[in-house]
Amino acid sequence: MHEFKYRRNQLYCEGLKVEELARRFLTPLYIYSKKTLLDHYLKLKKAFRALDPLICFSVKANSNLAILKTLVDQGAGLDIVSGGELFRALRVGCPRKKIVYASVGKTNEEIRAAINAGILFFNVESLPELENINRISGLLRKRTRVALRVNPGISAGTHKFITTGESTNKFGIDLSTAYDILQNRRYFVNSDICGLHMHIGSQITQSSSFVKAINKIVQFIYRLKREGIDLEYLNIGGGLGIIYDKETPQTASDFSKSVSPALRKTGQKIILEPGRFIAGNAGILVVKVLYIKNTPKKKFIIIDGAMNDLIRPALYGAYHSILPLKVTGYGAQDTEKYDVVGPICESGDFFAEGRIMPRVHEGDLLSVMSSGAYGFSMSSNYNSRLRAAEVMVNKNKASLIRKRDTCQDLIRNESIPRI
Ligand code: LLP
After folding, report:
1. Ligand 1 centroid vs 61 CA: distance in angstroms?
2. Which CATH architecture has domain 95-274?
3. What's the CA gap between 226 and 387, in Å, rounded?
4. Active site residue 345
5. pLDDT tens figures, 20-38
6. Which CATH superfamily is domain 4-31+280-411 in?
7. Is the pTM of this model over 0.85?
8. Which of 45, 50, 240, 251 has the most CB atoms around it within 10 Å of its CB?
């Protein structure tokens, strides 16, 4: 499942002791296992091999150039949502015909840049956006390929902040509007509507909602076919859940088995946009215990990492397992109930609340597991904290793939005006 394992009571990432990496690169530190990253990509590729889909890694999950390059070198495409992500995709040499671009609010500049780059297609999220892409394409004298992101109106049974396929969500186009657009596609003279896209949410652990949504779209595809509208692509988005705690998510092969027959019948080229499934368990965040603070009501472990480094617990109440780097000497009786908190001036700055853990001491190092997706990519400089360093491990080698911020980085774009 992943390459962060204990050997002789020490946590290793592939062939390297995590503790040594933390001493060398300091903390807070993101560490990624290249093998785990590739294993997950290949697992999905294998599960879907009969359909031979284009797997576009969702850049928002982890946008580090080294991560993107590793996947692109294996044949992955990229799912982007901004001009910045387009820049990253081009920087790692992603073939342009393997880039798909979603987002409800693409600006004129972003649309122009993506058209000029020659991406595979835009995932269009509204009629006004389609009109705008069509207009800009005309100005650039280009014909642009677009897929309509449809909103199937289906609950994904996940956290409400990461549910995207319900009819009250801002994402996608309802099926009846999509139908009207397709009926009138000849009016969008600079656009080639070549596919449909859906993405119903993230961290989905059961395939039933995927199956429901896909069946609904497949029915829609048949309705279109009957009317002579034959589209080339079906992009089923991302959303596959992973294990953070006690979840029992569908495996890639279960998922494939439950959706492939219906997908195959459409005859369309299939695209997947996984983010978390590939990167989530491939990364950890290593933090150091600064203080143990005992209050009349609670014991707090105060660490040097904070919500600016990993916001998922604060934002979604997300669970991340927190493990000591060394397990020597702990017995079952040596556990305590702790809140694991960062130094930021907000009570929401916690990684765990009321967590039973082996007893922890000042100076100990802890690993916050499954932090490879939506960890560093959602980090910030809040409280003028320096963003963490990132390291990639490949067998017995580690390389720094992002330097820790410096104070100069914090103020690089600021100036004090003389007014
Ligand atoms: N495609 C589209 C259009 C998306 O919006 C997303 C994620 C993905 C693909 C990839 O989804 P995944 O396979 O990673 O579930 N920050 C949240 C997750 C937000 C997901 C946003 N969209 C978290 O930390 O749980």
Report:
1. 7
2. Alpha-Beta Barrel (3.20)
3. 54
4. yes
5. 999 999 999 999 999 999 9
6. Lyase, Ornithine Decarboxylase; Chain A, domain 1 (2.40.37.10)
7. yes
8. 240
